[in-house]
């Protein structure tokens, strides 16, 4: 009897030692506000109003959210999801579908789609979040950002193939970035940790789809992971699966591998997305959001 009681006590202690699993952030835009994780929309004043479109897309992304519209310039729109994983996050596994395009072949297009794992101590647990565009958040110390950028604005973090015109598919790149402040324990400055053009072009892949978007245009898929390290810093990996019928054959490839964001420690976070157009334009859509958070 005493042995049984001891075993029960040990089992209870072991159970208590297992970290609680956090709820994921999920949204398929089929019935926004009624299903999935709640989100706030915060457009910057411009002529295009973003919206969720139910039943508008291809079978794999029947419902989606549209940030910008090809042909409408000067636009920046964002959405921020409510906190679903209280407490510091040690590991992130994120999946979402995206579609960037809509301008005809040979026409300038811009600017891209970004996301940010936003600090809740700066931006709260619900409501509007950071200012997010094609390179993640522009707010200092906002959190780790990932950018799907389709235009070279000649900024330090923009790249392109020097042998091709610096617009269009020649400027497609993916970045991992963080604007430092005291929160990170590191210096105060802006830094982009990785820019990738060559794994995209070497795989025959373009972030921008050179066609007119309609109900049947497929969505590509992005998967990324973030692993916070015990001694500080976080490793980021980004993977892409193309649905465009290009030379990738629809097989997932790794765009960025083990990119170290130094200094940063695990923090409580929620995710936000944003997209932007300027003088050149594109349509930017996302669908099938599923972000898994695990504690350290």
Structure write-up:
- By secondary structure, this protein is mostly beta strands.
- The protein has a single domain (20-294), classed as Sandwich (Jelly Rolls), CATH 2.60.120.200.
- Helices cover 8% and strands 38% of the residues.
- The chain is built from three helices and 18 strands.
- The chain has helices at 2-17, 120-123, 198-202; strands at 25-27, 39-41, 51-53, 64-68, 75-81, 91-101, 112-119, 132-133, 136-137, 145-149, 173-179, 190-196, 208-209, 220-228, 234-241, 253-261, 269-277, 283-294.
- The strands form three sheets. Strands 1, 3, 4, 6, 13, 14, 15, 16 and 18 form a nine-stranded mixed β-sheet that branches. It has a seven-stranded antiparallel β-sheet with strand order 2-5-17-7-10-11-12. Strands 8-9 form a two-stranded antiparallel ribbon.
- Strand 8 (132-133) and strand 9 (136-137) form a beta hairpin.
- The longest helix is centred in the N-terminal third of the chain and has 16 residues, at 2-17.
- The chain is globular, with a radius of gyration of 20 Å.
- The chain starts with a helix and ends with a strand.
- Mean pLDDT is 85; it is low at 1-19.
